[in-house]
Design goal:
By secondary structure, the chain is of the alpha/beta class. Residues 115-207 form the PpiC domain.
């Protein structure tokens, strides 16, 4: 019998699966109340040769149009789509927000094995209720416990009971079983009241320990060589010229990813690995972490291309561990190791601070995928921060919004606020370490505290952060117009070290497009926020994000966005042409805009944004501004670079060794669209020679992605040097 080729096998497979999918689709539509006539109309469009993912989209779109909400796909269909090799529709796309959150919380609770808690014991209920209100307003729990608690065992320790679980029967005299059982159902930062035979308990959850949920299998032989890779444990045990194994972390995307990368780097350092100190060491690193971003179109293909050089190293027989982290890792999961069996570990953003634990499996020679929903524990190791002046501080993870274009909720999960005490403790440690500026991070930062028990306000957290001694500047990103409170604007105006800068993504200046995006606010609501900011803080910077070419956007609707920009005159706008993302409703809309129209609108909006940025920057001309000096300018070592309170980059002449980390007054003599200060209009000859000398051109460039930009820079420098020499002759 002749061997059947790949395409032949696929046709044979679909001869069976096609009718099965038709029946599943019909049953699913009928189960959700779709009229029989409409079902048959939909099935007439069905083609058994289409991919399962397309069938899923058909089913979803029919149900969406009929009921205007998201309904879960059947488990049978999900399983069949998975076995066909096509990526399934994310559950979050097909579930209501309430159902989605309940399912995620149920998954999280299953994995919780212990909590770290404090408790306070009193004899009367009114006192317990009063203390609960005090904690809600920001009172320090450990101080109240030390002063008032009737528990002699934990009172002197500020109510600290440490880690507790259901099996800890020795804790019965402190926290009875039913109290521990309820504690295991709460999140970090929650405070709850409960009674027992001992009296009235007030319990605060500080952290949660959970079982790591992942799939693991022995690493297979490397393709092309037939070799089994050497486990990391064996490599670490070997004497490698008395030097530690080297790691490299490559980061794509947003500030959240940068913060995650710093935490992963900290864990690798704690395990004894050394960070790569040069591009040559990156090319030979023993552990490579690629922290990915899925916000733009073709993100998956970019990641696969990025992995190429490292995968080729493994195929050549090199021993290294490849880790794919971040949003693409969460989105693709097993598909990554299916395409690249050389990858050792795939982890979603929620596991960034558990990299060390998961690497233990990799060290034994296993291939691991960890993308299940889970609680995010407080860090047990210090991040290895990229700067010793400015630091990122996460205050909330995930996002509960359902913007129809955005993939973030399906990759970063539901919202989880960090406890106020944990945030303040991290900032206090940064202040003791000499950091001058912090940026509070959250996908939807105004949502901080709304998932805690009892609920708390972001504006109250800002006041607490503002009281930390030693931190000279505080920023925060990103605000959502739907939830941004005027109390936040008031807090920035009243707290001295809060920087006068607000990043509030509007996304569109047309109400119909905003509704289609499911943003939950109108243009007038956004303008109220801007008016409040400008009335209290006339010099504040207001920046935003805008998407052009969203499905169905007409020229008139685009003009509404330009009109909004003329009204507000943003200090800076991050613009992007709409790109369909997997597992998002907007990707299924039929009224997609052509690439030519998107490109034209993007050029026009960028031109207007640059004009407004220049206009806004002119207010600094001739003024003296406070600048936090951060680094030497990469193109001209005579200049130092920093930022003013509004976040504008400032260049001026100075000695970086003397000024680094200091707040200095700078007289602004020249402005550009996105820069202030003493700006050199062209790189001087000696500066070019300086760059030439610090980059060794005698060595052949490596093929790692890290060196692509460097090679281009070197090429440009060579050309300019040759031009200068020719001019001198």
């Amino acid at each position: 019998m002749r061997h059947q080729g790949h395409s032949g096998r696929r046709r044979a497979l679909w001869m069976v699966r096609g009718p099965v999918l038709v029946l599943i689709l019909l049953a699913e539509l009928l189960a959700h109340g779709i009229p029989l006539v409409q079902c048959f109309t939909a099935l007439q469009r069905f083609d058994s040769r289409r991919t399962p993912a397309a069938v899923a989209s058909d089913s979803y779109e029919i149900r969406r149009q009929h009921k205007h909400n998201y309904i879960s796909c059947s488990a049978t269909a999900q399983k069949l789509w998975q076995t066909s090799g096509a990526k399934t529709m994310e559950e979050s796309m097909n579930l209501s927000l309430k159902d989605f959150k309940e399912r995620i919380e149920a998954q999280r609770r299953k994995s919780v094995i212990a909590v770290r808690a404090r408790h306070l014991l009193v004899e009367v209920k009114p006192l317990c209720d009063s203390l609960f209100e005090d904690v809600k307003k920001g009172a320090e729990f450990h101080a109240l416990a030390a002063a008032i608690s009737a528990c002699s065992v934990t009172r002197d320790a500020g109510g600290d009971v440490g880690w507790i679980g259901m099996a800890d029967e020795f804790m019965e005299d402190v926290l009875p079983r039913h109290v521990r059982e309820l504690a295991l159902q709460h999140k970090p930062g929650d405070v709850f009241k409960i009674t027992s035979l001992r009296g009235f308990h007030l319990v605060k959850i500080e952290d949660v320990m959970f079982d790591l949920s992942y799939t693991s299998k022995p690493q297979g032989r490397v393709q092309g060589r037939g070799l089994l890779p050497t486990p990391l444990k064996e490599l670490m045990a070997k004497d490698k010229d008395d030097a530690a194994l080297v790691y490299a972390v490559e980061t794509m995307g947003c500030a959240m990813n940068t913060a995650d990368s710093e935490r992963m780097a900290g864990q690798l350092s704690a395990l004894g690995f050394r960070e790569a100190a040069s591009s040559e060491e990156v090319a030979k690193a023993d552990v490579v972490v690629v922290n990915t971003c899925s916000i733009r179109d073709h993100a998956e293909q970019k990641v696969y291309s990025y992995l190429g050089p490292y995968v080729n190293r493994k195929k050549r027989g090199d021993n290294l561990a490849i880790v794919v982290a971040g949003c693409v890792a969460q989105q693709e999961g097993q598909a990554i190791v299916s395409r690249f069996p050389e990858v050792d570990l795939v982890i979603g953003p929620q596991y960034a601070n558990r990299l060390g634990d998961l690497l233990e499996e990799v060290m034994d020679g296993n291939q691991v995928v960890a993308t299940e929903a889970t609680h995010i524990m407080e860090d047990v190791s210090k991040p290895r921060r990229d700067s010793d002046i400015r630091a990122w501080v996460n205050i909330i993870y995930g996002c509960n919004e359902r913007c129809t274009y955005c993939v973030v909720p399906t990759t970063r999960g539901t919202e989880q606020s960090r406890p106020r005490e944990s945030v303040i403790r991290e900032i206090e440690e940064l202040a003791r370490s000499g950091y001058r500026e912090i940026t509070l991070l959250g996908q939807n930062i105004d949502a901080w505290g709304r998932d805690l028990t009892p609920k708390q306000k972001f504006s109250d957290l800002l006041h607490a952060v503002g009281r930390v001694e030693g931190i000279k500047r505080v920023r925060f990103v990103t605000s959502h117009p739907r939830y941004m409170s005027m109390n936040v604007v008031d807090a920035v105006a009243s707290i001295p070290n809060m920087c006068e800068m607000f990043h509030v993504p509007v996304q569109s200046g047309d109400d119909d497009i905003l509704k289609k995006m499911s943003r939950g606010y109108t243009v007038s609501k956004f303008l109220e926020i801007v008016e409040r900011i400008r009335s209290l803080l006339p010099d504040a910077a207001v920046t935003s994000d805008i998407i052009v070419g969203f499905p169905g956007e007409t020229e008139a609707q685009f003009q509404n966005t330009l009109r909004l920009m003329e009204i507000v005159k943003f200090d800076q706008v991050n613009t992007a042409a709409y790109s369909p993302r997997p597992n998002t409703p907007a990707a299924t809309y039929e009224d997609q805009i052509s690439d030519d129209v998107k490109s034209d609108r993007l050029q026009r909006i960028n031109k207007l944004a640059a004009e407004h940025a220049m206009e806004r920057n002119h207010r600094y001309l001739g003024r003296e501004v406070e600048v936090l000096v951060e680094s030497r300018h990469v193109k001209d070592p005579r200049l130092v670079k920093g930022r003013n309170r509004q976040g504008r980059p400032v260049l001026f002449e100075g000695n970086i060794e003397e000024l680094r980390g200091k707040l200095v007054p700078v007289l602004i003599k020249e402005v550009r669209s996105y820069m202030l200060g003493t700006i050199v209009k062209r790189i001087q000859k000696w500066a070019l020679i300086h760059i030439f000398l610090i980059n060794d051109f005698s060595k052949p460039p490596t093929s790692t992605p890290t060196n692509v930009k460097l090679r281009r820079l070197r090429s440009r420098v060579k050309c300019k040097l040759m031009a200068l020499k020719s001019h001198e002759k």
